[in-house]
Amino acid sequence: MLEIKPICEHCAKALPNGSDQAMICTFECTFCQDCVINILENVCPNCGGGFERRPTRPLACLTKFCVTNYPVGEMEYVNPVKPQKFSPLKQALVNVDPRKR
Ligand SMILES: [Zn+2]
Ligand SMILES: [Zn+2]
After folding, report:
1. DSSP string, 17-34
2. Distance, CA 30 to ligand 1 centroid (Å)?
3. What are phi and psi of 23, to 5 degrees?
4. For a disulfide at 23, which of 5, 35, 51, 75, Cβ 3.0-4.6 Å?
């Protein structure tokens, strides 16, 4: 189940549940679309995987009236990318299809 993290891990931009700017990797490392395109170039700095657009949890599931009550995450996690550390990983994977990494 997705935690639906509330901010971008790199730039701390707000990414609420309804945002169409939230991108996630398979481990749910969460970044805004700007960072994924311009800084990460679709390489997750934590796992090397690619990103996909995060789905939005239906409003009905955020309330006590939902069969299963799962609120979105509130913990703000920020871990800005360190260029020196990220560069080798990015160079190795940026031209590899995320489905084949
Ligand atoms: Zn960002
Ligand atoms: Zn990741």
Report:
1. TT-SSEEE-TT--EEEHH
2. 9
3. -125, 145
4. 51
Distance from residue 67's CA to the centre of ligand 2 (Å):
30
Cα–Cα distance measured from residue 59 to residue 12, given in angstroms and rounded to the nearest whole number:
24
- DSSP letter, residue 91: H
Name residue 20's amino acid.
D
Q: Is 13 helix (H, G, I), strand (E, B) or coil?
A: coil
Stated pTM of the model: 0.90
Q: How far apart are CA 20 and CA 98, in angstroms?
A: 21
| HSE-up (13 A, CA, CB side) for residue 100 | 6
Q: Which ligand is nearest to the CA of 81?
A: 1
Question: Domains of the chain: which residue ranges?
Answer: 22-100
Distance CA 19, CA 76 (A): 16
- The predicted-structure confidence for 37-57, as pLDDT tens digits, reads as follows 999 999 999 999 999 999 998
The CA 24 to ligand 1 mean position distance, Å, reads: 12
